[in-house]
Amino acid sequence: MSVLQLLENGLFALGQVLRFPIMVLLWVCVAAALFMAGHAVVELVARQRERRGFDIKRWLQGGPVLDATETRLAELPALLRRLAADVWASRQAGALEHGGLEHLLLEREEQVRHTLLAPRALVKVGPSIGLIGTLIPMGASLASLATGNLEVMAGQMVVAFTSTIVGLTTGTLAYVVASARQAWATEAVREQRFLVERIATELDAPSGGSDPRPGKG
User: Fold this and answer.
1) Whole-model pTM above 0.90?
2) What span, in angstroms and rounded, lies between the C-alpha atoms of 19 and 146?
3) Fewer Cβ atoms within 10 Å of its own Cβ: the N or the C terminal residue of the chain?
4) How many CB atoms lie within 10 A of CB 147?
5) CB–CB of 88/195 below 8 Å?
6) Where are the alpha helices (DSSP H) in the chain?
């Protein structure tokens, strides 16, 4: 046996060894896609409930942010309420000076963008795993064809095409989730920046109330 044949046989054997972990990863992609889709649906329902009739511009017209009452703060979506609470806590600790407010905003934006990492990764990983899961059985199918075993060949081809379908389906589902989350993230970042800009203006004002906590002016 020549060195070239030895290398080729080794690669074929390696491909067959990878078959099991690839199939496991393909099932992991399916589970991840279903989990992301379910979580996105739950978040969509929650967003529609808490943001029904909410407009950040109209809310800011109701008065200062730093002196907002608890009832008025409850009108904010959960993400903006947490931001307002963090601003109050940082101000109490004296951590808003020297770029502290901007740093807090950047941290919040990073948390929002972090929700896009998993679906974006699955958009590429899902079809890639599906393609690998297609090519490995096709190699075994061609080997079966060479020996005349058509039944085994047909079974391997079914597995190959099924892997392609599953991989593309998980990638498509992840793309839909990523697109929805991208729209939510863009809206969240825009509103957070708007809110922080108003807070910065109030902090620069000559007087900001005796108690900096929202609702305790």
Assistant:
1) no
2) 20
3) N
4) 9
5) no
6) 3-17, 19-50, 56-60, 70-73, 78-92, 100-114, 117-147, 150-204
